[in-house]
Amino acid sequence: MKSVSPHVNSIVMSFPVVHMKTFLTVIFLIILCGTSVFAQKTSSKRTTALQLLTNLEPKVRWNSRSLLKADFDYDGVVDYALAGKKGNLFVVGIVKGSLTGKSKHWTLEFPQDAASQGALCSVADGQIRLERFSADDENPEVRKLPRKSRGINLSDEMCDSFHIYYNRKKARFVWWRR
Fold first, then answer.
1. In this structure, is residue 160 part of a structural domain?
2. Of the four listed, 23, 118, 153, 154, which is most buried by Cβ atoms within 10 Å?
3. pLDDT top residue among 105 and 29
4. pLDDT tens for residues 117-162?
């Protein structure tokens, strides 16, 4: 067997096992923290629907708790919807998935006027939720939508709800009321 030089043996022997464990633990923690910081940097660069709408529509105060996710335009990719307010208007923002800084988006604005079919009775009480459309719906256009279609229901619990859906012919979101 080859023997190790006396100089190497003295270095290894003078470095106690306790210190070696501490040294290796410190190295492990440094590596672990480095990967954690790297993971945070990459995940924080992902665009969210809220960030996108805030950048594109800065005058709207978006409600992050109103986020809806569904395939609203029937292309097989999840889209996003958020509710917001801009002055006296209730705003529904819809972002086409996959989220990038250049994702297509639509906004629908609804004023407050109990006498108008195109307005809410109360902007302050407006809220959005997912809505499933079916073949027996009363709107003929909605009956033609793909099976298991999802839309957005806008309601203030005072007037008739708005039923928001994607119209393929017009390539935009439209609404109807009962």
1. yes
2. 154
3. 105
4. 999 999 999 999 999 987 777 788 888 888 888 999 999 999 999 9
Indicate the pTM of the whole model.
Answer: 0.72
Cα 106 from chain centroid (whole Å): 15
Q: What would the pLDDT profile of 39-54 be if each residue is shown by its tens digit?
A: 444 444 678 999 999 9
Buried b / exposed e over 97-128, threshold 16 CB at 10 Å, is: bebeeebebbbbebebeeeeeebbbebeebeb
Q: Are 50 and 67 in contact (CB under 8 A)?
A: yes
CB-side exposure of 81: number of CA atoms within 13 Å? 25
Q: Which two tokens stand for residue 140?
A: 């003929």
Q: Are 165 and 133 in contact (CB under 8 A)?
A: yes
24: containing domain: 6-43
